[in-house]
């Protein structure tokens, strides 16, 4: 009161202020007592406070509603007869829901419709509960459609029940509609997003899941459980791009992901060859403080992929975890380490590791062999560095494998440096005390073929036969390449005929090289002869003559004339000797 009339009170003497406060307090207390007793009008006292001049008189304060009056709800309106009937039916249904009697609920709803009752949203919610108990999920969704058709005001629980039914039916279209309605009415919660993500996980639909995931993030409803369900959905859809985005949010949420799920993330990264996901998964698995031991084959597969990508840092991280979990490094890990060093241009480490693997008897696959060769043959300095790495190891008493020297010869051949190739070949016996094998000779022949030196290539082949080394299919293929690059088609055909007498199965690609050259020269009889030769050797060669004509730039009119002559000859043969033609067709 003094706050409202502070101006009046401040202009009065002290005695006047005290008297005014006492009279006002008495009036307030009496008015409160009369109101409680039921009096219609409050008592008003005449103030004994001296009158103020008109210039100092303040305007009467506006009446402000009390807090109690503001909180008072308006009086409820009276229910109609139909609404009272619906309320009675809903009360019965609620009791049956509490007693968990779905069959009785359906019977009461049927009676209600028979008596002309008007169901409201609570009636349909009870009906949905009964259908959920009876696992009749389609009827749950039909209840929502009926509510919309009748224009009844909906509630969030109606949509929650529909979302549960949509999960059981894996109906993602209806689930998306429900999520839209909930978002529009601000009824979404993390639990609804989790429920929707379960449907997407079952259907491996990461697109719809990610759409709702972004809505949850925008609405600030992103929890650790929502993130985990989204990760599972990305894993089921094998979607590494969205998985990478969700993993960043997992760190922001703060709750750690279980190591078992990180294993599935690593599998997805390996399947998609996603280096970023693999690195994150490996880092989480290897730095797990809870004593979880990851799968050894899974880490091995991750090491192989990381090695192929040339990620030396990630590979060293995996190999350090091997020591922690007491895993043994096998050939796969060693090959991955060689590939990583080769991809980064470390020729000394690559040749050193390859030599150690060959000494132990580990077989080097062709892809690794070519990658190391590509690393070494980048320059003459790298070739010399790799070679002297082996010389240093030999002087230190370490064993040197013949395959490592063959790799040096192959690298020299690829750079068409025949001087280094023959020098390294000669030092196999002089320096290292080893005898060249078939791969050593093949590397020399391949080097001669690249520079179109047919005579030195056959001289190496003769030396190989004198040394008692048995040629293989690759030897004959290199000789064919040398002949064809030197435009010596006849000699290439002779090698193909020589292979027929040997116990060697020449690759179809080698025959195809000769056939292409013959087609380019317009020698179609030789093409047919070589094709028959392949068929006799048990090979299959499906040749499109028109393709060879286009590649060989042969005159199509000439080939059409040859075909016409062949057709005329067949017609004459059919007229003179039909049995001979039928035998040829059978053949």
What's the gist of this structure?
The protein is mostly helical and about 575 residues long. The protein is built from 32 helices and no strands. It is elongated and about 130 Å long.
Walk me through what this model shows:
With 587 residues, the protein is mostly helical. It is built from 32 helices and no strands. The protein is elongated and about 130 Å long.
Q: What keyword list fits this structure?
A:
32 helices; disordered N terminus; 587 residues; mainly alpha
Helical element count? 32
% residues in beta strands: under 5%
In total, the number of strands is 0
Average predicted confidence as pLDDT: 75
Into which percent range does the helicity of residues fall? over 70%
Q: Identify low-pLDDT runs.
A: 1-12, 39-52, 549-556, 579-587
End-to-end CA span: 123 Å
**SS-based structural class?**
mainly alpha
What about the largest sheet?
none
Roughly how many Å is the radius of gyration? 46 Å
What is the fold's blueprint, element by element?
Elements: H1 6-10, H2 14-37, H3 67-71, H4 81-98, H5 102-114, H6 121-133, H7 137-150, H8 156-169, H9 172-184, H10 190-203, H11 206-218, H12 224-237, H13 240-253, H14 259-272, H15 275-286, H16 296-309, H17 312-325, H18 331-343, H19 347-359, H20 366-376, H21 380-395, H22 402-414, H23 418-430, H24 438-450, H25 454-466, H26 473-485, H27 489-501, H28 508-520, H29 524-536, H30 545-552, H31 556-576, H32 578-586
Helix pairs in contact: 4-5, 4-6, 5-6, 6-7, 6-8, 7-8, 8-9, 8-10, 9-10, 10-11, 10-12, 11-12, 12-13, 14-15, 14-16, 15-16, 15-17, 16-17, 16-18, 17-18, 18-19, 18-20, 19-21, 20-22, 21-22, 22-23, 22-24, 23-24, 24-25, 24-26, 25-26, 26-27, 26-28, 27-28, 28-29, 28-30, 31-32
